[in-house]
Structure formats: structure tokens, C-alpha cells
Design a protein that fits this description.
This protein is of the alpha+beta class. The protein has 17 helices and 16 strands. α13 runs antiparallel to α14. The chain starts with a helix and ends with a helix. Bound molecules: flavin-adenine dinucleotide.
């Protein structure tokens, strides 16, 4: 296996890469992606797919060093094998370490450890002008270290990252608490997020008076373990079981088998289809492929036209300060009407380690709302009608929206949220020729 040093030496010598970077806009070649916006223009791509190895797991330092294209599935396996896990492991197996930092990553440990980028201590980044820089929170490239999260590959490509880890136990006991009152539900989120005995915290809203909060705790022994990797569906267990036990590994991937609940969009919750697909293909990568095939051939679009239905894809993750979470939930339930909704608390960002381009509400717990579906209507509406409403409400409530899916912000509005001055200073220093494109054009204009 070629070492990281050999790969970077070859990259530095790789005239093709230099030429592509020199010749104008490039993109990243990737076999999988969790982006949810179609790109308009084809462009030359840089293939860094071979930077996909875990390099070192250090149980004494509680760190793992891995190349940027390493999937969290491989990262979890490498660390679990040594009794540890990265502090935050996004729940879709194909998400990569570099992608989760460039595109913001979250999971049920975020109430204590923040977002994936909050767990990173060092990065090697191939910048737009073809230079590989090493950045940490305190060295001469600390501006890029703090500016890289939420940059979506427009400031450079992460070749190697060091992430903090924590010790694990073999099993996770999950306690599911049902709620029928929104205020009590969010009060419980706040209370549990301070509970040292809780290792994992997330929830699901099934309806206005039907919510479940799930608290996970590491344990050494379990009376039994549940298996949600085949016939049984995790989110359907939340309202039936008060307590459940999973292996640590199965807990990390509890949402991947059914892409939360989005497997319903491809019929994969039907027992016959599950048997047809089999355990190996019941995962987010399969559903992504089906979804991209549909997007390519516009199958659902034709069906909807025949039915006289106008459908808008509403696939978003937004972070709202806890104090306004009730208001935002009311808005979603009355004006968007997409259910279920994933709820994931995020601790207040560390002022000394804030992400320059992803301004989470400061000095407060935030709540991530994840909702992924289409909103249908009989009347034709302007493009992005519902998504636009959501953007306005998120901004009005002091929240921030992640940019992996569709966005409709105006340019000034966008930059009033995502810090134009800091971004322009970073572009001038690390991608002066604009080889990697601009964040607004990439995330909103889809250029
Ligand atoms: C249905 C759905 C649910 C989701 N839920 C969650 C969730 O719960 N938790 C969560 O954490 N995330 C979630 N995401 C978002 C996802 O984490 C982000 O989109 C993340 O950026 C994907 O990482 P990836 O490795 O798949 O990268 P891609 O999706 O392939 O890329 C994302 C962006 O990052 C850039 N990029 C990728 N690799 C690198 C690199 N090494 N260096 C620099 N830039 C790079 C790409 O150019 C692209 O702009 C969800 C997405 C979907 C579609």
C-alpha cells in the first residue's frame, strides 16, 4: 500500500493536477456523495479517491489520523477494533472524514462534542493553487483551519485529518421516552444534554403530540441485542420499545439501513423488497444510487406531471437555538408538513474554536432539525417556494442552515449569514485564481 507521504509526493509531482488547477474550475472526483443538489456544469475533476486510508489510531492520545476520503464506515471499524470511536460519527456509512468537515457533519454525540469539525485537531489541505498546507488551530494556517468547515471544497481538499476519539464499550443501551407536549420534550432535551450518564442523545418527531427522545449509554453487558440491519426497521421500534440494546457498531449505523426513514421512497420498507435487496444492499448508498438514477431520468417528475402534482424536494438540516426550537417545530408542522423529523442537539460552540463560515448560535445549545421528503401541491408555485420559506424562518429565528442540499438565498443575504469578508480573505490567500469555485455559486447557483 502506498504511504501517505508517497501519495502526497506523487500529488506534488502530478503535473496533471497542477495543470487542471491552473486551467480554471475543477471539481472533486468521488464514487459516492451525500450532496442533494444537481450540478449544472460538467468540469474536469481531480481524483483523490486513493486518499482513503486510516493511518493511525492512538488510544493514549485519543486520536485517529486518517486520509480525507476515508469513509466513516472504515474509520469506525478501525477505531472500534481498538476500543475507541471518533467523537462524532455521522450516521451514513459513505460520508467521508473530509466531506463531513467540508460539508458539516452531526450525530447523537453532538450534544457534548459539537459537529465533526469541532473534533478535528489538524488537517493537511491541497489548496486551490496546488500547495499542500498543514493547518492547526494555532499555527500560521489557523485561518484556514477555522475557515475550512462548510467550505464545500472551495478552499481546498483535505488530504489528511486528525480527529479526537473516545473509548467505547461493547454495547449501547437506548432508552426511548415518549412525549406529547413540545415544551416538555425540549425541556427534556436540555436536561438530558447535561446528564453525564448519557453518551448519545437524539429524537424523532412523528406528529404534533407524538415525539420520542432517545438516550444511549455505553454498557459492558446486554441481556440481548436487537438487529436493525435487515428485516426490522429502527425508527419503527422507537414508539414500541422503552429500552433497547445494540452493539456499539450497530448503534452507530442504526439510521443507515433505512436512511433514517427515507427507504420508504424506494419501497424498501416492504418485507418482500427487503428480502429482494438482502442485508448487503439495505443501506444509504443503494438508495442514493436509486435516487440519482431517478433524478437522471426524471421518472418521478413524469409520474407527477401525469398526476397533475407539483412536487418540491425539501431535504434539509437546519440548526436552531434551543429557545426558539418550539416555534420552529410549530412552523414545520403547520407550513411544511414533512414528517418524521430528526432532532439532534448540538452543544454551544467553543468561542476559541469557532468555525468561521458556519455561525452556529453562540452560548446556547442548538437543535438540529433534519427533514427529507417532497412537498406536493396541485397549484404551480415558484421554484423553491417551500425551501425559501424555511430559509427565511431559520434566519428569523437566529439559526443556520447546512448547505448540502438546495438553497435559494439571494447573494447578499447568503453572505450576511456565511461571513463574506472572512471567506474573501481565505480565497485570496488559498485559491487566488478561483480554481475551486465560489461557495455561493456552488451551493446556491449550483454552478
Ligand atoms: C438525507 C441526508 C441526511 C443527512 N444527514 C446528515 C446527518 O444526519 N449528519 C451529518 O453529518 N450529515 C448529514 N448529511 C449531510 C452530509 O454529511 C454532508 O453532505 C457531508 O458533506 C457529506 O460528506 P461526503 O463525504 O459524502 O461528501 P460529498 O457529499 O461527496 O461532498 C460534500 C461536499 O464536500 C466537498 N468535499 C468532499 N470531500 C472533501 C475533502 N476531502 N476536502 C474538501 N472538500 C471535500 C465536496 O466537494 C462537496 O462540496 C445528510 C445528507 C443527506 C442527504
Amino acid at each position: 500500500m502506498t504511504t501517505y507521504a508517497e501519495k502526497t509526493a506523487r500529488l506534488r509531482r502530478d503535473l496533471d493536477v497542477a495543470q487542471r488547477l491552473g486551467a480554471g474550475r475543477v471539481g472533486l472526483a468521488k464514487s459516492t456523495s451525500n450532496l442533494f443538489r444537481e450540478r449544472q456544469r460538467r468540469r474536469p475533476r481531480i481524483d483523490l479517491g486513493h486518499f482513503n486510508q486510516v493511518l493511525r489510531v492512538d488510544a493514549t492520545e485519543d486520536t485517529v489520523e486518517a486520509e480525507g476520503m476515508t469513509t466513516f464506515a472504515d474509520l469506525a471499524d478501525a477505531t472500534l477494533g481498538l476500543g475507541a470511536m471518533p467523537l462524532v460519527v455521522p450516521q451514513l456509512k459513505s460520508i467521508t472524514l473530509g466531506g463531513a468537515v467540508a460539508g458539516v457533519g452531526i450525530e447523537a454525540t453532538s450534544f457534548r462534542h459539537g459537529l465533526v469539525h469541532d473534533t478535528i485537531t489538524a488537517m493537511d489541505i491541497l489548496t486551490g493553487d496546488g500547495v499542500i498546507v498543514s493547518c492547526t488551530a494555532n499555527n500560521e494556517h489557523r485561518d484556514l483551519f477555522h475557515g475550512f468547515p462548510n467550505s464545500y471544497g472551495t478552499l481546498g481538499y483535505a488530504l489528511k485529518l486528525t480527529a479526537r476519539t473516545m473509548p467505547v464499550k461493547r454495547y449501547v443501551r437506548v432508552m426511548h421516552t415518549r412525549h406529547d407536549d413540545v415544551d416538555i420534550f425540549f425541556a427534556d432535551v436540555a436536561r438530558r444534554s447535561k446528564d453525564e450518564a448519557v453518551d448519545f442523545l437524539d429524537g424523532v418527531v412523528f406528529g404534533p403530540r407524538d415525539m420520542v427522545l432517545s438516550c444511549g449509554t455505553f454498557i459492558d453487558d446486554a441481556p440481548y441485542v436487537s438487529d436493525y440491519t435487515y428485516e426490522r426497521i429502527y425508527y419503527q421500534s422507537l414508539r414500541d420499545k422503552r429500552v433497547d440494546y445494540l452493539t456499539a457498531r450497530d448503534y452507530l449505523w442504526r439510521w443507515d439501513t433505512d436512511w433514517f426513514w427515507c427507504s420508504k421512497n424506494v419501497g424498501a420498507q416492504h418485507p418482500f423488497v427487503r428480502r429482494l435487496l438482502g442485508r448487503k444492499r439495505l443501506n444509504s448508498i443503494t438508495y442514493q444510487k436509486i435516487m440519482r438514477w431517478n433524478a437522471r431520468w426524471g421518472v418521478m417528475g413524469r409520474v407527477n406531471r401525469l398526476r397533475g402534482v407539483h412536487a418540491e424536494a425539501v431535504i434539509q438540516d437546519v440548526d436552531i437555538p434551543l429557545a426558539r426550537a418550539h416555534e420552529f417545530l410549530d412552523f414545520l408542522l403547520t407550513e411544511v408538513q414533512v414528517l418524521p423529523i430528526w432532532i439532534c442537539p448540538i452543544c454551544a460552540p467553543d468561542p476559541a474554536n469557532e468555525a468561521t463560515l458556519y455561525p452556529l448560535p453562540s452560548a446556547t445549545l442548538s437543535v438540529n432539525f433534519g427533514f427529507w421528503d417532497t412537498v406536493a401541491s396541485r397549484e404551480r408555485r415558484e421554484r423553491g417556494f417551500v425551501n425559501r420559506k424555511i430559509e427565511r424562518r431559520v434566519t428569523a429565528l437566529g439559526g443556520v442552515k447546512s448547505l448540502y442540499s438546495d438553497s435559494y438565498f439571494g447573494e447578499d443575504e447568503f453572505w450576511s449569514i456565511y461571513n463574506r469578508p472572512a471567506y474573501q480573505a481565505l480565497k485570496a490567500r488559498y485559491d487566488p485564481r478561483g480554481a475551486l469555485g465560489d461557495l455561493y455559486s456552488k451551493c446556491v447557483s449550483r454552478a
